[in-house]
């Protein structure tokens, strides 16, 4: 291994970092070590780099492009890739609100408190699509305070129990029997713990749904920062997973990134196709199994309603509950006439509005299992729409 | 020939091939590096591409014992690492009492009970025990099924290749195991664990490789049958099934047809044995709607 080689492969790592791949020093050291072992020809370097520097299929895509650039000097648009990585430093929404308030805030403290209170009350029922910038940041702040407590299920994990009945806890029983001369007088038991069900949010990000999905994704972000088990996906003409972006970064940027990745933006939503991608890649493999799936969409589907029905059926076979959030439902005289909506409704357990803070609250209480209003009433009352 | 430290990537490739696993260059490099650098290898990929088989073939190649830990929800230290044999402990106490040999000293009784003879070794502890002359192959299968807490625990064990049992002291591996971790990506494995592992995404093999794999796995089947089935399966992967068949299904299907005494494909036996390769009712319907005759025709007509 010559110094020249080292320089060269460090150049590759530098390019990878520019392209947005995170390469911790530890992995860099492994890479150099691996190349030292496997040999410094280009093929070995390629495979060594893949084994040590990438951690997912997405990483491999980036890696392949960068590697081609490194070897051939092909133009790959590094800057474009950089732009798709959200920056972690963003202007805090609260800051924006404060800037726009009068500077003499000391004097008006009591006033603004009262004002803020009443504003919150009005905001609660306001439609997300009708908010101005100030109201929006206020709503975002309120959403950030919302907490999601998903309904629980029995876990396979066991913990010591105080009850007399249950699975015997031999470990503690034997331990305690030592005190009584080997006689297991105090029999100890175990009980199963409960864990929160996973919540999977699939949000339609097409034009008409944008402001609603933005709020729902913010809501998911609050849940992720509260360490609940939440997965989030954006659905346009294709499906984009947002969970990792929500983990640490700004949710608006994550949404922005998702909408950037949608190529034919004006093409509208293909619900059936998007759900098929979800089912194939994530859902039926385990992510949707036993979890609560929340779908946000107006049900306008450019694809075939039959496909949507098939995919909804698949999803309903693995999911614990399917919640459909349709902001249009809030408007007077709404009936689920959109073909996609009608096709999906038979598989939906709860059908709710989700257009305002108040309805997000309702979503929270349904997720926590505190309130239940079966959608069946809606379906049976309008059978002709459903069968259309 | 000792395979504890293979000399080159092609050694690994040919060695695995001799034991019926045809790895491509990327996988062979990853395995070679995992063995030379002593790092765990994380394998991801579609179900049925042969992630688990890697560990089995590697164990056959090195002669190291295969220790398998199947992950599931709620997996904890007592099932992964060690557990005390409680029924035997209780029995021992009663027997000692009946024989009147039980000591009145609690500490002495305790020492007796928590000695190695009452220790049940689970795969992780077994992998780092000192009974192995050749490095064992530790397969941690479907890690994504275990909960996060288990990952943190696994990380700790793998970092040091050592386990401390409070009652007995520290166990340390004399020959560190070769660790293969597989995941189906139903959830993301933690970054901390990924950083310590080498990573390889296992792809579906190309047609020629798949035919070679089938032939090495089902040597009894006719070459013609292996070739035709592989081509038909490749075709099935393109018609949008819920669960596109993997290599495992191709092998199963060739075995099934071969067991039925077929030496080449025909529509009737494809229809009858479709269950070996397509596991959803909807998928079977789709294949039939697509036309089994047409599929068989295109698979049996040499077009190249």
Structure description:
The complex is a heterodimer of chains A (388) and B (304). Chain A is an alpha/beta fold and 388 residues long. Chain A contains 18 helices and nine strands. Chain A has helices spanning 3-18, 25-38, 42-53, 57-72, 78-84, 93-100, 109-125, 133-145, 170-177, 210-225, 243-248, 251-261, 271-287, 305-318, 339-344, 357-367, 376-381, 383-387, and strands at 152-161, 167-168, 189-196, 199-204, 230-235, 239-241, 292-296, 321-325, 350-352. In chain A, helix 2 (25-38) runs antiparallel to helix 3 (42-53). The longest helix of chain A has 17 residues, at 109-125. Chain A starts with a helix and ends with a helix. Chain B is α/β, with parallel strands linked by helices and 304 residues long. Chain B contains 15 helices and nine strands. Chain B has helices at residues 9-18, 25-37, 51-62, 77-80, 86-99, 106-113, 123-127, 148-160, 191-196, 207-217, 223-236, 247-259, 267-272, 281-290, 292-300; strands spanning 41-45, 66-70, 82-84, 119-121, 137-141, 162-165, 169-172, 178-183, 198-202. In chain B, strands 2-5-8-1-9 form a five-stranded parallel β-sheet. Chain B has a two-stranded antiparallel ribbon with strand order 3-4. In chain B, strands 6-7 form a two-stranded antiparallel sheet. In chain B, helix 1 crosses helix 2 (25-37), helix 11 (223-236) packs across helix 12 and helix 11 (223-236) packs across helix 15 (292-300). The radius of gyration of chain B is 24 Å and the shape is elongated. Chain B starts with 8 loop residues before the first helix and ends with a helix. The model of chain B has no long low-confidence stretch (mean pLDDT 88). Chains A and B meet through helix 2, helix 3, strand 1, helix 9 and helix 13 of A and helix 2, helix 5, helix 6, helix 9 and strand 9 of B.
């Amino acid at each position: 291994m010559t110094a020249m080689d080292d320089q060269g492969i460090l150049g590759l790592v530098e390019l990878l970092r520019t392209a947005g791949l995170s390469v911790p020093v530890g992995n860099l050291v492994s890479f150099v070590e691996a190349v030292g072992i496997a040999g410094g020809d280009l093929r070995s370097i390629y495979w060594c780099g893949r084994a040590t520097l990438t951690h997912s299929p997405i990483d491999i895509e980036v890696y392949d492009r960068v590697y081609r650039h490194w070897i051939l000097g092909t133009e790959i648009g590094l800057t474009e890739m950089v732009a798709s990585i959200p920056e972690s430093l963003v202007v805090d929404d609260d800051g924006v609100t404060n800037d726009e308030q009068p500077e003499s805030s000391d004097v008006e403290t009591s006033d603004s408190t009262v004002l803020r209170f009443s504003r919150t009350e009005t905001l609660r029922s306001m439609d997300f699509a009708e908010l101005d910038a100030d109201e929006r940041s206020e709503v975002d702040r309120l959403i950030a305070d919302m907490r999601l407590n998903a309904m629980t299920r029995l876990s396979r994990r066991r913990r010591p129990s105080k009850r007399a009945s249950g699975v015997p806890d031999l470990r503690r029983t034997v331990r305690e029997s030592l005190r009584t001369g080997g006689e297991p007088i105090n029999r100890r038991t175990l009980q199963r713990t409960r864990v929160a069900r996973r919540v999977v949010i699939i949000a339609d990000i097409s034009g008409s749904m944008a402001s609603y999905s933005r709020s729902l994704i913010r809501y998911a972000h609050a849940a992720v920062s509260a360490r609940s088990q939440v997965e989030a996906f954006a659905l346009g003409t294709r499906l984009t997973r947002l969970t990792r972006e929500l983990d640490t970064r700004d949710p608006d940027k994550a949404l922005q990134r998702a909408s950037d990745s949608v190529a034919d933006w004006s093409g509208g939503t293909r619900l059936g196709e998007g759900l098929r991608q979800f089912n194939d890649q994530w859902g039926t493999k385990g992510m949707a199994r036993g979890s609560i799936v929340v779908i946000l969409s107006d049900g306008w589907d450019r694809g075939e309603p039959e496909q949507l029905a098939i995919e909804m059926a698949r999803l309903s076979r693995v999911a614990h509950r399917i919640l459909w959030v349709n902001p249009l439902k809030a408007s007077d005289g709404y009936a689920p006439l959109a073909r996609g909506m009608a096709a999906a409704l038979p598989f939906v357990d709860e059908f709710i509005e989700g257009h305002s803070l108040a309805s997000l609250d309702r979503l929270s209480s349904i997720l926590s299992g505190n309130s239940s209003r079966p959608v069946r009433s809606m379906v049976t009352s309008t059978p002709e729409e459903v069968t259309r | 020939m000792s395979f504890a430290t293979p000399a080159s990537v092609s050694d690994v490739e040919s060695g695995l091939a001799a034991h019926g696993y045809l790895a491509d260059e990327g996988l062979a490099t990853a395995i070679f590096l995992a063995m030379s650098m002593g790092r765990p290898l994380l394998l991801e990929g579609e179900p049925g591409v042969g992630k688990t088989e890697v560990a089995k073939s590697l164990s056959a190649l090195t002669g190291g014992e295969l220790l398998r830990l199947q992950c599931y929800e709620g997996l904890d230290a007592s099932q992964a690492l060690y557990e005390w044999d409680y029924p035997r402990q209780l029995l021992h106490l009663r027997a000692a009492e009946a024989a009147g040999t039980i000591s009145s000293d609690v500490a002495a009784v305790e020492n007796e009970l928590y000695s190695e003879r009452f220790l049940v070794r689970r795969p992780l502890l077994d992998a780092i025990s000192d009974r192995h002359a050749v490095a064992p192959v530790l397969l941690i299968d479907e890690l994504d099924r275990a909960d996060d807490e288990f990952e943190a625990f696994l990380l700790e064990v793998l970092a040091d290749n050592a386990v401390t049992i409070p009652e007995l002291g520290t166990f340390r591996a004399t020959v560190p195991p070769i660790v293969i971790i597989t995941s189906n990506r139903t959830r993301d494995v933690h970054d901390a664990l990924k950083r310590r592992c080498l990573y390889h995404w296992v792809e579906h093999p190309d047609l020629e490789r798949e035919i070679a794999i089938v032939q090495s796995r089902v040597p009894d089947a006719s070459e013609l049958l292996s070739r035709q089935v592989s081509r038909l399966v490749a075709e099935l992967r393109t018609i949008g099934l819920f669960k596109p068949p993997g290599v495992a299904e191709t092998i199963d299907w060739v075995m099934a047809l071969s067991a039925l005494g077929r030496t080449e494909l025909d529509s009737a036996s494809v229809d009858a044995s479709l269950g070996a390769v397509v596991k959803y009712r909807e998928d079977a319907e789709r294949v039939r709607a697509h036309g089994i005759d047409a599929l068989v025709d295109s698979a049996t007509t040499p077009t190249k």
